[in-house]
Amino acid sequence: MSSNKRITNAFKQAKKLSLNKEVKYILFSDCHRGDNSFADDFSHNRKIFHFALSQYLQKNFTYIELGDGDELWENKFVDIFNANKDIYLLLKEFHSKKQLYFIWGNHDMYYKNPKNVAKNLNTYIDSATGKKKDLLPNASFSEAIRLEQENGKSIFLIHGHQADWFNYTFWKTSRLLVRVLWRPLQLVGINDPTSPAQNFKELIKVESRLERWIKNNNQMTITGHTHRPRFPSPGKVPHFNDGSCVHPRCITGLEIENLKITLVKWHVITKKNGTMQIIKTVLEGPKSILQYI
Hints:
The protein is of the alpha/beta class.
Protein backbone atom coordinates (compact mmCIF):
# COMPACT_ATOMS: atom_id res chain seq x y z
CA MET A 1 0.00 0.00 0.00
CA SER A 2 1.33 3.45 -0.93
CA SER A 3 1.79 6.29 1.55
CA ASN A 4 -1.01 8.14 -0.26
CA LYS A 5 -3.45 5.30 0.42
CA ARG A 6 -2.33 4.95 4.04
CA ILE A 7 -2.90 8.66 4.69
CA THR A 8 -6.24 8.63 2.83
CA ASN A 9 -7.48 5.63 4.81
CA ALA A 10 -6.51 7.32 8.07
CA PHE A 11 -8.37 10.48 6.98
CA LYS A 12 -11.54 8.57 6.13
CA GLN A 13 -11.53 6.66 9.43
CA ALA A 14 -10.46 9.58 11.64
CA LYS A 15 -12.22 10.31 14.92
CA LYS A 16 -14.11 13.62 14.72
CA LEU A 17 -13.96 16.33 17.38
CA SER A 18 -15.53 19.78 17.36
CA LEU A 19 -13.70 22.87 16.11
CA ASN A 20 -15.24 26.19 17.14
CA LYS A 21 -14.46 29.33 19.15
CA GLU A 22 -15.31 27.65 22.45
CA VAL A 23 -12.95 24.66 22.33
CA LYS A 24 -9.26 24.84 23.22
CA TYR A 25 -6.69 22.22 22.22
CA ILE A 26 -3.03 21.72 23.07
CA LEU A 27 -1.12 19.36 20.80
CA PHE A 28 2.15 17.70 21.77
CA SER A 29 3.79 14.66 20.21
CA ASP A 30 6.92 12.56 20.30
CA CYS A 31 7.35 12.60 24.06
CA HIS A 32 9.02 9.20 23.90
CA ARG A 33 8.46 8.74 27.63
CA GLY A 34 11.10 6.30 28.82
CA ASP A 35 12.50 4.66 31.93
CA ASN A 36 14.69 7.55 33.15
CA SER A 37 17.86 5.77 32.00
CA PHE A 38 20.70 7.40 30.05
CA ALA A 39 18.89 6.42 26.83
CA ASP A 40 15.71 8.23 27.89
CA ASP A 41 15.51 11.43 25.81
CA PHE A 42 12.36 12.59 27.62
CA SER A 43 13.87 12.59 31.10
CA HIS A 44 15.58 15.99 30.84
CA ASN A 45 12.27 17.64 29.81
CA ARG A 46 9.92 15.74 32.12
CA LYS A 47 9.49 18.59 34.62
CA ILE A 48 8.96 21.11 31.82
CA PHE A 49 6.32 18.86 30.25
CA HIS A 50 4.56 18.30 33.58
CA PHE A 51 4.42 22.01 34.35
CA ALA A 52 3.21 22.94 30.86
CA LEU A 53 0.50 20.30 30.90
CA SER A 54 -0.65 21.38 34.37
CA GLN A 55 -1.09 24.94 33.06
CA TYR A 56 -3.24 23.72 30.19
CA LEU A 57 -5.31 21.63 32.60
CA GLN A 58 -6.00 24.70 34.73
CA LYS A 59 -7.02 26.66 31.62
CA ASN A 60 -9.45 23.93 30.50
CA PHE A 61 -7.61 22.85 27.34
CA THR A 62 -8.19 19.44 25.79
CA TYR A 63 -4.94 17.53 25.35
CA ILE A 64 -4.31 15.63 22.11
CA GLU A 65 -1.10 13.61 21.89
CA LEU A 66 -0.07 13.05 18.27
CA GLY A 67 1.77 9.77 18.65
CA ASP A 68 4.98 8.34 20.13
CA GLY A 69 3.92 9.31 23.63
CA ASP A 70 5.29 6.14 25.22
CA GLU A 71 8.66 4.81 24.07
CA LEU A 72 7.51 1.21 23.74
CA TRP A 73 10.24 0.20 21.31
CA GLU A 74 12.92 0.51 23.99
CA ASN A 75 11.05 -0.06 27.26
CA LYS A 76 8.44 -2.08 29.09
CA PHE A 77 5.45 0.02 30.09
CA VAL A 78 5.81 -0.76 33.79
CA ASP A 79 9.24 0.89 33.74
CA ILE A 80 7.88 3.89 31.81
CA PHE A 81 5.04 4.29 34.30
CA ASN A 82 7.28 4.06 37.34
CA ALA A 83 9.60 6.73 35.92
CA ASN A 84 6.71 9.04 34.96
CA LYS A 85 3.96 8.34 37.45
CA ASP A 86 3.32 12.05 38.02
CA ILE A 87 2.77 12.54 34.29
CA TYR A 88 0.21 9.74 34.09
CA LEU A 89 -1.66 11.00 37.14
CA LEU A 90 -1.87 14.38 35.43
CA LEU A 91 -3.16 12.71 32.26
CA LYS A 92 -5.71 10.99 34.48
CA GLU A 93 -7.11 14.41 35.40
CA PHE A 94 -7.58 15.29 31.72
CA HIS A 95 -9.18 11.88 31.19
CA SER A 96 -11.64 12.37 34.05
CA LYS A 97 -12.79 15.59 32.36
CA LYS A 98 -13.10 13.76 29.00
CA GLN A 99 -10.44 16.06 27.58
CA LEU A 100 -7.77 13.56 26.57
CA TYR A 101 -7.19 11.92 23.18
CA PHE A 102 -4.26 9.90 21.87
CA ILE A 103 -3.08 9.17 18.34
CA TRP A 104 -0.73 6.23 18.00
CA GLY A 105 2.58 6.61 16.20
CA ASN A 106 5.20 4.10 15.17
CA HIS A 107 6.86 3.90 18.60
CA ASP A 108 3.51 3.22 20.30
CA MET A 109 1.79 1.41 17.42
CA TYR A 110 1.31 -1.35 20.00
CA TYR A 111 -1.72 0.72 21.07
CA LYS A 112 -3.41 0.07 17.74
CA ASN A 113 -4.82 -2.98 19.53
CA PRO A 114 -7.40 -1.90 22.17
CA LYS A 115 -6.44 -4.90 24.32
CA ASN A 116 -2.92 -3.52 24.65
CA VAL A 117 -4.28 -0.10 25.60
CA ALA A 118 -6.37 -1.70 28.34
CA LYS A 119 -3.45 -3.83 29.54
CA ASN A 120 -1.15 -0.84 30.01
CA LEU A 121 -3.45 2.04 30.84
CA ASN A 122 -6.70 0.88 32.44
CA THR A 123 -5.27 0.51 35.95
CA TYR A 124 -2.12 0.85 38.01
CA ILE A 125 -0.92 -0.48 41.35
CA ASP A 126 -0.85 2.11 44.12
CA SER A 127 2.55 1.64 45.75
CA ALA A 128 1.25 2.91 49.11
CA THR A 129 -1.68 0.50 49.40
CA GLY A 130 -0.75 -2.26 46.95
CA LYS A 131 -4.23 -2.00 45.44
CA LYS A 132 -5.33 -1.47 41.86
CA LYS A 133 -6.63 1.96 40.94
CA ASP A 134 -8.15 3.34 37.77
CA LEU A 135 -5.68 5.14 35.53
CA LEU A 136 -7.04 5.82 32.02
CA PRO A 137 -9.86 3.29 31.55
CA ASN A 138 -11.20 3.24 27.99
CA ALA A 139 -8.55 5.75 26.87
CA SER A 140 -9.23 7.10 23.37
CA PHE A 141 -6.60 5.93 20.87
CA SER A 142 -6.98 6.33 17.12
CA GLU A 143 -4.84 6.59 14.00
CA ALA A 144 -6.08 10.06 13.19
CA ILE A 145 -8.40 12.84 14.37
CA ARG A 146 -10.30 15.50 12.44
CA LEU A 147 -11.11 18.75 14.21
CA GLU A 148 -14.24 19.61 12.26
CA GLN A 149 -16.32 22.75 11.95
CA GLU A 150 -20.07 22.67 11.40
CA ASN A 151 -19.51 23.49 7.71
CA GLY A 152 -17.44 20.31 7.31
CA LYS A 153 -14.05 21.98 6.98
CA SER A 154 -11.46 20.42 9.24
CA ILE A 155 -7.93 20.15 10.54
CA PHE A 156 -6.47 16.67 10.01
CA LEU A 157 -4.30 15.35 12.84
CA ILE A 158 -2.01 12.38 12.22
CA HIS A 159 1.35 11.20 13.53
CA GLY A 160 2.94 11.18 10.08
CA HIS A 161 4.63 7.78 9.94
CA GLN A 162 2.05 6.80 7.33
CA ALA A 163 4.43 8.55 4.90
CA ASP A 164 7.35 6.48 6.22
CA TRP A 165 6.79 2.99 4.82
CA PHE A 166 9.52 1.27 6.85
CA ASN A 167 8.33 2.67 10.19
CA TYR A 168 4.69 1.95 9.36
CA THR A 169 4.63 -1.35 7.50
CA PHE A 170 7.70 -2.83 9.17
CA TRP A 171 7.40 -1.18 12.56
CA LYS A 172 7.99 -4.48 14.36
CA THR A 173 11.28 -4.90 12.49
CA SER A 174 12.22 -1.32 13.39
CA ARG A 175 11.35 -1.99 17.01
CA LEU A 176 13.56 -5.08 17.07
CA LEU A 177 16.48 -3.17 15.56
CA VAL A 178 16.10 -0.41 18.13
CA ARG A 179 15.88 -2.80 21.07
CA VAL A 180 18.73 -5.04 20.03
CA LEU A 181 21.08 -2.67 18.23
CA TRP A 182 20.40 1.06 18.41
CA ARG A 183 19.43 1.44 22.07
CA PRO A 184 22.80 0.10 23.30
CA LEU A 185 24.60 2.24 20.70
CA GLN A 186 22.56 5.28 21.74
CA LEU A 187 24.20 5.05 25.15
CA VAL A 188 27.53 5.82 23.49
CA GLY A 189 26.14 8.56 21.23
CA ILE A 190 25.30 6.76 17.96
CA ASN A 191 21.90 7.68 16.52
CA ASP A 192 19.35 5.43 14.83
CA PRO A 193 19.60 6.04 11.04
CA THR A 194 16.09 4.62 10.42
CA SER A 195 14.52 7.56 12.29
CA PRO A 196 13.61 10.60 10.15
CA ALA A 197 14.17 12.78 13.22
CA GLN A 198 17.86 11.77 13.10
CA ASN A 199 18.30 11.33 9.34
CA PHE A 200 17.78 14.52 7.32
CA LYS A 201 17.35 12.74 3.97
CA GLU A 202 14.58 10.55 5.39
CA LEU A 203 12.99 13.59 7.02
CA ILE A 204 12.75 15.39 3.67
CA LYS A 205 11.26 12.31 1.98
CA VAL A 206 8.60 11.94 4.66
CA GLU A 207 7.67 15.63 4.58
CA SER A 208 7.50 15.59 0.75
CA ARG A 209 5.08 12.66 0.74
CA LEU A 210 2.89 14.30 3.35
CA GLU A 211 2.85 17.61 1.51
CA ARG A 212 1.97 15.92 -1.77
CA TRP A 213 -1.12 14.44 -0.12
CA ILE A 214 -1.99 17.76 1.54
CA LYS A 215 -1.78 19.62 -1.79
CA ASN A 216 -3.83 17.03 -3.64
CA ASN A 217 -6.54 17.05 -0.99
CA ASN A 218 -6.42 20.76 -0.07
CA GLN A 219 -6.44 19.78 3.60
CA MET A 220 -4.85 21.57 6.56
CA THR A 221 -2.85 18.91 8.37
CA ILE A 222 -0.86 18.70 11.62
CA THR A 223 1.73 15.97 12.09
CA GLY A 224 4.57 14.93 14.38
CA HIS A 225 7.08 12.12 13.71
CA THR A 226 9.95 14.17 12.25
CA HIS A 227 10.44 16.25 15.44
CA ARG A 228 10.79 19.36 13.25
CA PRO A 229 8.34 22.19 14.11
CA ARG A 230 6.54 23.63 11.07
CA PHE A 231 4.28 26.69 10.89
CA PRO A 232 3.62 27.75 7.28
CA SER A 233 2.51 31.20 6.21
CA PRO A 234 -1.03 31.56 4.81
CA GLY A 235 -1.02 30.62 1.13
CA LYS A 236 1.72 28.01 1.58
CA VAL A 237 1.12 24.26 1.88
CA PRO A 238 -0.89 24.02 5.15
CA HIS A 239 1.37 21.44 6.77
CA PHE A 240 2.00 22.09 10.46
CA ASN A 241 4.19 20.07 12.81
CA ASP A 242 4.15 20.40 16.58
CA GLY A 243 7.82 19.39 16.94
CA SER A 244 8.60 17.16 19.91
CA CYS A 245 9.15 16.97 23.65
CA VAL A 246 12.71 15.67 23.32
CA HIS A 247 14.48 18.77 22.06
CA PRO A 248 17.69 19.32 24.06
CA ARG A 249 16.42 22.31 26.04
CA CYS A 250 12.66 22.65 25.46
CA ILE A 251 9.38 21.12 24.36
CA THR A 252 7.29 22.49 21.50
CA GLY A 253 3.60 22.23 20.76
CA LEU A 254 0.65 23.80 18.97
CA GLU A 255 -2.20 25.60 20.70
CA ILE A 256 -5.62 25.96 19.06
CA GLU A 257 -7.82 28.54 20.75
CA ASN A 258 -10.53 30.90 19.53
CA LEU A 259 -10.03 29.45 16.00
CA LYS A 260 -6.39 30.54 16.04
CA ILE A 261 -3.25 28.40 15.96
CA THR A 262 0.02 29.17 17.75
CA LEU A 263 3.38 27.40 17.85
CA VAL A 264 4.86 27.60 21.35
CA LYS A 265 7.83 26.31 23.27
CA TRP A 266 8.17 25.72 26.99
CA HIS A 267 11.66 26.06 28.41
CA VAL A 268 13.72 27.00 31.47
CA ILE A 269 15.25 30.44 31.99
CA THR A 270 17.58 31.67 34.74
CA LYS A 271 16.45 34.93 36.35
CA LYS A 272 18.82 37.65 37.52
CA ASN A 273 18.51 36.51 41.13
CA GLY A 274 19.74 33.04 40.17
CA THR A 275 16.40 31.25 40.40
CA MET A 276 15.14 29.16 37.51
CA GLN A 277 11.70 29.39 35.96
CA ILE A 278 9.73 27.47 33.34
CA ILE A 279 8.13 29.83 30.83
CA LYS A 280 6.21 29.69 27.56
CA THR A 281 7.49 31.52 24.48
CA VAL A 282 5.45 32.06 21.33
CA LEU A 283 7.46 30.98 18.27
CA GLU A 284 4.86 31.61 15.55
CA GLY A 285 1.34 32.99 15.44
CA PRO A 286 -1.33 33.23 16.52
CA LYS A 287 -2.84 32.90 13.05
CA SER A 288 -6.49 32.46 12.14
CA ILE A 289 -7.25 28.88 11.16
CA LEU A 290 -9.69 30.23 8.58
CA GLN A 291 -6.69 31.31 6.49
CA TYR A 292 -5.69 27.65 6.07
CA ILE A 293 -8.91 25.63 5.76
